[in-house]
## 1
Amino acid sequence: MRAAMAMVAFAGVAAFIFLVDPVDQYLWIKALHVIAVIAWMAGMVYLPRLFVYHADALPGGEADETFKVMERRLLKVIMTPAMIISWVLGLWLAYSGGHFSSGWFLLKFAAVVGMTVMHFYLAKSVKRFASGTNEISSSRWRALNEIPTGLMIAAVIFVIVKPFS
């Protein structure tokens, strides 16, 4: 419910911006896109870190239950809405900027698809932790924690440097 309310509020802000400053619409959408990406990335880096500690928590203990709540809320209230907003606004920016055939955009798109696959893997892992069926060690979660960072670095380089334009 909170996630839906957050997305409605975000859409309301975006609609207000269109009404107030339609001339700079592209720049406002780009700013909102970057805000959504930052929120998504914060969750993508923090959730695996929670898994590192959760993997070592005593099953059924107080810490285990606390991690379950934290992970579920992070995924549903922050990460998933931010991912959806990032995709919608990013595709709008790509379409309105005519970037779909650019080499740099295709590379960035591949990095974002990789990030989305990782998002869904982490979402599945939240369910595994909630049901008590996680089989991945804390050291393995530490290694998996690096994947979103690497994909984010690649996406940023492709957008800023624009190789293969």
Note: The two ends are 42 Å apart (CA to CA).
## 2
Amino acid sequence: MNYYLGGDVSKGYADFVILDSSKSVVEENFQLDDTFDGHRKLYEVLMELLKKDSSAHIYSAVESTGGYENNWYNFLCKYKRELPLSVVRLNPVGVHYNLKAGLNRNVTDKISARGIAEYLLSHSNKIRYDSQDNFTELRKQKKFVDMLTKQKVQIENQLEKILYSANPEILVYCKKKKPAWLFQLLLKYPTAEKLSRAKAINLQKIAYLKDVKIENIIEKAKKSIASDSGVIIDNLIISMVNQILHFESEIQKQVKAMIANCKLDEVNLLTSFIGIGDKSAIELILEIGFIERFPSVKKLASFFGLHPVFKQSGDGKSGMHMSKQGRRSPRATLYMVAFSGINHNPVIRQV
């Protein structure tokens, strides 16, 4: 007999249920805290089940819940050697649609736990048990980099709003991206009022600022339409610039650490393509995981949400467009890869 353990993980606890091959309940729903005692209790429940049927095999699953499932998943993996146990971490999207197909009206932790166990039974051919994820630490580091990047962009957007009234003429140089010299200039001359009194010789000390550009910047500052100035605005702009520079420094530090800690053949293979850098290669590897999961190129494209979709129902039609299903993060990475390829890869430029 095979048994199926479904665990719906929440912050600090989890709900479990055990079904047999006919989807009958073997062990009613029970809730355990995410503590040593809770983990020990789960081990005792599994041992009691195996005492009744020593030839049984237990298939267990938890959903990916942003990291809250890691303690339970690692606990189950630890006992695979001494117990007839297989463990898998499931994508919650698949479990969600499987529950919808069962026409469940309510969603509770107990129902979700049973839904996870039933998913193991219904889609056994699609599940890869005991696949070890070797990228757990890198994923956490990437999430940290994403968080830093998001915070940096938020401050940059706020800074742009303030500059619109404190030094609007300087924004002319920020149409595509913010130049390297901009933040150094703002640290010394945050507002148009201060910039208008600056001497060209002092601005020449800032890297990447040419003489012609310096004259234009000072001249425009003298004729500025800025409506904000003063000590408070000065301090606010300087503080924001320092925060942005701090985030940039920390992001570069974390990215270098990611590259140093991810020496994989797959990364080397991807970076051999003109347009893919180390950071993009690592991000794509983290998203793909095991390439064996995708039996064809079309499956991989669908995973990224790049596949075209066309809908026809009755007299209504919708044109061909990108599905954009799944996570946005890998599509953002691929966009930058394509953009870089157009600029530097003659093959992609021709396409």
Note: The longest strand covers residues 2-10.
